[in-house]
Design a protein that fits this description.
Distance between the termini: 52 Å
Helix content: 10-25%
Largest sheet: 8 strands, mixed
Mean pLDDT: 93
Low-confidence stretches: none
Structural class: alpha/beta
Number of helices: 7
Strand content: 25-35%
Length: 279
């Protein structure tokens, strides 16, 4: 949807999704959300119902609060790390001149270890939403929550996340296990996370997993899921961690970009040709 007017404490928006009739609707958001809106701002809502009033239609929650997932705007460069563990992606990103503003980890003990490792505050979903209602979210923090929870993506939208770093559970894909892929709960979480990223239309998604993932029978399904969520893999490789670290461990790394962004094939080839040196 796209915000078309802000009248007092009301937000009016027009739907523009393919296959959905164009409608002008009053959005029944909590009042604090208005501080994050401007006319022209695009967003996604889910789990809603349309109410016909005497002179207008409203979009309302089926239950609880109606919250939008805001889409990033020009100038936003916020990075999020999913399945954070103790923040390995964020540590690596620091060598590239950036850092994650939000590190999402479901396990409470691990989330607090991550916070201590990076000197960051650890927040629950309710705490983060409460701070957001006063526009007091920290510049960077660990969010102890399930990355496929819709409210996680509400918070990421408020922050203006444009890029994701993610290491989804590797057990379903490892040759050391049963290789059940999407037949497992963890495999399903991988798929759900990819679809969830589409809610806010970010521009970049970096993935890491076991080296055998591209050879897994479900890999074509993964490619289909990425495409349905609006992603294209522009660079992928299996690299050994040695000699960067004194261990022998290969990992699959992939960079995906939004289908709305054109990548020059020459630049994609340059990226794919970069390899760690053999030692």
């Amino acid at each position: 949807m796209e915000c078309t007017a802000i009248c007092g404490d009301e937000i009016w928006a027009t739907s523009f999704s393919k296959g959905v009739p164009t409608m002008k609707l009053r959005c029944e958001f909590p009042s604090w959300i208005m501080a994050y809106f401007d006319v022209g701002r695009r967003f996604t809502v889910t789990d809603f119902k349309i109410i016909q009033n005497q002179n207008f239609q409203s979009i309302c929650p089926k239950s609880g609060l109606l919250l939008p997932v805001l889409h990033p705007i020009s100038g936003h460069k916020v990075v999020a790390e999913a399945f954070a563990g103790i923040g390995g992606w964020s540590h690596g990103a620091s060598f590239c001149g950036t850092r994650a503003s939000i590190l999402i980890e479901k396990d409470e003990i691990t989330a607090h270890a991550c916070g201590r490792s990076h000197g960051l505050r650890v927040l629950s979903l309710d705490e983060a939403l409460s701070l957001a209602s006063f526009m007091q979210l920290p510049d960077a923090f660990v969010l102890c929550a399930d990355v496929i929870d819709f409210k996680v993506h509400v918070i990421c939208g408020l922050l203006g996340v444009t890029a994701w770093l993610a290491s989804p559970p590797c057990q379903p894909w490892s040759k050391a296990g049963w290789q059940k892929g999407f037949e497992t709960v963890d495999g399903g979480i991988f798929a759900s996370f990819i679809y969830a990223t589409a809610l806010s239309e970010p521009v970049c998604l970096n993935l890491e997993n076991v080296p055998g993932l591209p050879d897994h029978p479900h890999f074509p399904v993964l490619l289909q899921i990425l495409s349905e969520a609006g992603w294209s893999i522009v660079s992928s490789s299996v690299d050994q961690i040695y000699p960067l670290l004194p261990i022998m461990r290969a990992r699959w790394l992939a960079t995906c970009v939004s289908n709305k962004i054109h990548i020059d094939p020459k630049n994609a080839k340059i990226a794919n040709d970069i390899q760690f040196p053999d030692m």
